[in-house]
Amino acid sequence: MARCRLMDRQQFWDLIEDARTKASQGSDARTVADHATASLAALPREQIVGAAQPLWDLLADSYRDELWAAAYLINGGASDDGFEYFRGWLIAQGRETFERAVADPDSLADLPAVRAAAAEQEDLEDEDILRIAWDAHLKATGEELPPGSFTIRYPRITADWDFDDPAEVRSRLPRLARLHMD
Questions:
Q1: Where does the pLDDT of residue 4 fall: very low under 50, low under 70, confident under 90, or very high at 90 and above?
Q2: Are 71 and 83 in contact (CB under 8 A)?
Q3: Beta carbons within 8 Å of 73's beta carbon, 6+ residues apart
Q4: 5, 53 contact by CB (below 8 A)
Q5: What is the model's pTM?
Q6: Tell me: the pLDDT tens digits for 93-121?
Q7: CA-CA distance, 82 to 24, in Å (whole number)?
């Protein structure tokens, strides 16, 4: 099946913002995912399929070493999957937060959810956001998302520094380091 491009990034972000509005706590990524999935499932099949690509494009846009380092620091480590789940959580925080964090990962230190997670030593991740198109398609049609519905093109990460080096972390992510290392 050829990829369906009936949802652009703005429409995807509108879907996330609508889901955040419906969630009692907009920063609760699982609830945001549940609302986004329900909203998608009410759309025509082609639009559900078309929602997968902008999601994975955002994941590719956020596939950056400095953001990975921030996820590593915030969550006390971040495997490939852990970094993906962290970016799922980040998408659930909405466009403004996502774009600010991609441009300046240290800005995450300003978020109440990040501060609370540091105090409670909790991880910030959500795998459910990554499945909203899949889950919506299954809910609406009883079928899996068709093969070829989206492509993933991650850039190459060439992290030239050690995320476990406290001096380097403090130099590159000073505000997050104060929250998680001091």
A1: low
A2: yes
A3: 163, 169, 173, 176, 177, 180, 181
A4: yes
A5: 0.92
A6: 999 999 999 999 999 999 999 999 999 98
A7: 25
